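#lab-general

N.A. 3:47 PM
ok so I finally got the sequence cleaned up, no stray characters, all 254 residues accounted for. can someone with queue access submit it? mine expired

B.Y. 3:52 PM
send it over

N.A. 3:53 PM
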Amino acid sequence: MKSKFWTLYKKELVSARVFLLIFTGAILLWQLFLASKRNIWPSEALVALSWLPLAVLPLWVMWNAFNSFRHEWNGNTIYLLLSLPLQGWKISLAKLLTVLSEFTFYTFIIICGNLLFFKPELSLIIKELPIEITLSNIISLGVKVYALYWFPIATLGVLIQFASLAGRLVERFQGLLSAWVFFLSLWLVSRWTMLTSGAFKWVPDLSFTVLTTQNGISAQQTLSVDTAPIIATLVMVVIIFITGSWLVEHELEV
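B.Y. 4:20 PM
back already:
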């Protein structure tokens, strides 16, 4: 028997297919436009601008996470959603996973677009590096950098979703309450992280190798990222997510 959670998750993905096609087309058209400027604009500028959609994605995540439940009220489908034999955290998780899945898909499209339209420029940039860069180095660094990029995006999605749910607790000034809850949540997460990071110093740091240049000499250097604040942040984000899920299950009125 198919899990009701995955059924809901699939339904959310299917309902987002129109926007998925629109944003995918917009990303590819942007990269195609840049590719048409080859031999006109510097190759470094073309490659840099091709990654510009990554800067827009966080704003899209905020908007989509905020409306993940609101469109249920607007479409009068909230009663059906809350009547499903699913716990609140499963409903919230299905909504959140949909947003993050779309975010991951768009990132994948951006990467594929770069490989499709700007492979010569990327190859030239890599060849001009004074040290040898292997495919395994690129993949390893890319995965770690993406993980560091994905985590704050997921955190943002949780806080925005919680703020949107909190706004539904009142009949008036819902937007104002949501904004207040969002900024309060940001302050709470940052404060908690500062106070509790020391308790997670035992967690190994995340290390990765980057290319550095000093006095005209290029070399590979290993950098370390302190994972203690990340773990501390994760703990509070999970608490906020659970609180929002409790609101879905017990406090929100149809």
